[in-house]
Amino acid sequence: MTTPRLYSGMQPSADSLQIGNYIGALLNWKALQQTHDAYFSIVDLHALTVAQDPVKLRENTRRTAAQYIASGIDPSASTLYVQSHVAAHAQLAWLLNTITGFGEASRMTQFKDKSARQGSDATTVGLFAYPVLMAADILLYDTEIVPVGEDQRQHVELTRDLAARFNSRFGQTFTVPEVAIVKETAKIYDLQNPTSKMSKSAESHAGVIWLLDEPAVTHKKIMRAVTDADGGVVFDRENKPGVANLLTIYSVLAERSVGSLEDEYAGRGYGDLKKGLAEVVTGTFGPIRARVLELLDDPAELDRLLALNADRAAGVANETLTRAYDRVGL
Ligand code: ADP
Ligand code: NA
Q1: I want to staple 147 with a disulfide (CB 3.0 to 4.6 A). Which of 21, 182, 276, 306 is the partner?
Q2: Is the ipTM of this complex over 0.90?
Q3: Residue 321 is inside which H or E element, if any?
Q4: Do 83 and 41 form a contact (C-beta atoms < 8 A)?
Q5: CB of 11 closer than 6 A to ligand 1?
Q6: Domain range annotation of the chain
Q7: Is this model's pTM higher than 0.90 or not?
Q8: Do 170 and 34 contact (CB within 8 A), yes or no?
Q9: What pLDDT digit, counting tens, does each position of 242-264 carry?
Q10: Range 215-293 has CATH code 1.10.240.10
């Protein structure tokens, strides 16, 4: 019996991940690595689709790797590697570019949104081809399952179309993956703006809790979180989004039901809820932060782990690439 192959990744787009990345992605990954042959990538090639400072990009890539590991992604139970360390990603992407319709790529809603925001002069061909690179990421590993949020569904659908098209044109080459929309265990919102998603790329960082924030900073951010004038500790996403968000974070990190938190804090006000939450958050991320700093303190060991994992990934990826090259006549 073989364990199903799974692929997922995140961009090294900031020097720290935020707690939404941890709750929405890393916690799931940590569980999935037990039951799957999992490939977790730090997708630095994808990050290049918008302008990056070279020194920061390299640094953020290593910091993201350290945060994956410190959050429980085990580099011996899964394959945790940096995308650019495996050349096959860019190589297969080119082949796939040649079978992707211009119109087909133009229909990707994420591209349409991003390019409309940036304007066409700031928008690169790389950003346009981003979903094709993502297809290469997935297909290189004969991935069966791609756990993604709803926002990535269209890209995985494109991946399926490209795999099927290639197979029918050139003969069976790629595994057609399943789109497994993993229901985000929880969606986390910005503490200052609790109707918009907490994000690494938020314009203001006042409402973003970073994994690597110092405990005192986390505490302050939580105490200043936007709530409402009602005063009741009740989960009501629509009318009390700030409180609902605090309860969600609390519930996931403390592994307690929202109901039991509502009971505990009934009649006690938001100050107490926030204090309790701050303890839970700093309690969770204190040890993670310490482990990240330890990993970053020993660059040679981190590089050794990443090189080992990249070799493992390349072993699988190069086999697929060779097959695809051969099929098209290269
Ligand atoms: P960001 O907006 O922080 O740059 P990405 O869009 O790159 O995050 O997403 C990386 C991963 O983290 C994805 O799996 C995504 O679903 C998850 N994620 C990001 N933000 C949140 C959030 N606020 N709540 C839950 N999951 C999130
Ligand atoms: Na595994």
Answers
A1: 182
A2: yes
A3: helix 299-328
A4: yes
A5: yes
A6: 5-186+299-328, 215-293
A7: yes
A8: no
A9: 999 999 999 999 999 999 999 99
A10: yes
